[in-house]
Write a structure and sequence with these properties.
The structure holds two protein chains of two kinds. By secondary structure, chain A is mostly beta strands. Chain A has strands at residues 5-7, 10-13, 19-24, 31-37, 43-50, 53-57, 65-68, 75-79, 88-95, 104-105, 109-113. Chain A contains no helices and eleven strands. Chain A is globular. The interface between A and B is medium-sized, with 26 and 23 residues.
Chain lengths: 114, 109
């Protein structure tokens, strides 16, 4: 069964460093999403991406964040200058279409900022 | 702003018991999702509902659009059902999911 994959599974970085989290969505899916979950808190939406542009973003997704689909398979989330409060589990998801289609989640990348 | 509330926050039961987890939301939605989060953190989609009822194995999900309420039921619960169950909704015209805080379910043998 096709699945969303994410790399790395765990990333440790120092405050102020740039990180890139990578995702490979399911191949025929057109909509891509990033979510994050700070330890002990709810999952929160960051951004959705369709047709090579951001289609919706939350107030969390400020200028420190960017997303890109650099080729036909990868979908990346970049954090330009990490802060301690960026430590969280980051989930990528994809869906075939938008309105009535399920989102399939990747296993997550645990980001630890020290 | 759509708020999603789940109850209970924690639920411990014995193997074989019938389990119900509830989800309420505050504004109109286009779809509601039930998700399962394993101890390692991974999230698996269980159901997506916009009306009525869906069943998959021992899991049943129902939604009442007028009352803005959904329930997830587990019949003949088993220790392997132990996980966090999360309700998430998509508002009308929105792409993002808004998540509840999750219900931690523990099934004891």
């Amino acid at each position: 069964e096709p699945e969303v994959t994410q790399t790395p599974s765990h990333q440790v970085t120092q405050m102020g460093q740039e990180v890139i989290l990578r995702c490979v969505p399911i191949s025929n899916h057109l909509y891509f999403y990033w979510y994050r979950q700070i330890l002990g808190q709810k999952v929160e939406f960051l951004v959705s991406f369709y047709n090579n542009e951001i289609s919706e973003k939350s107030e969390i997704f400020d200028d420190q964040f960017s997303v890109e689909r650099p080729d036909g398979s990868n979908f990346t989330l970049k954090i330009r200058s990490t802060k301690l409060e960026d430590s969280a589990m980051y989930f990528c998801a994809s869906s075939e279409r938008w309105l009535t289609y399920e989102q399939y989640f990747g296993p997550g990348t645990r980001l630890t900022v020290t | 702003k759509n708020e999603v509330e789940q109850s209970p926050q924690n639920l411990t039961a014995q193997e074989g018991e019938f389990i119900t987890i509830n989800c309420s939301y505050s504004v109109g939605i286009s779809a509601l999702h039930w998700l399962q989060q394993h101890p390692g953190g991974g999230i698996v989609s269980l159901f997506m509902l916009s009306s009525g009822k869906k069943k998959h194995g021992r899991l049943i999900a129902t939604i009442n659009i007028q009352e803005k309420h959904s329930s997830l039921h587990i019949t003949a619960s088993h220790p392997r059902d132990s996980a966090v169950y999360i309700c998430a909704v998509r508002g009308q015209g929105a792409q993002k999911l808004v998540f509840g805080q999750g219900t931690r379910l523990t099934i004891n043998p």
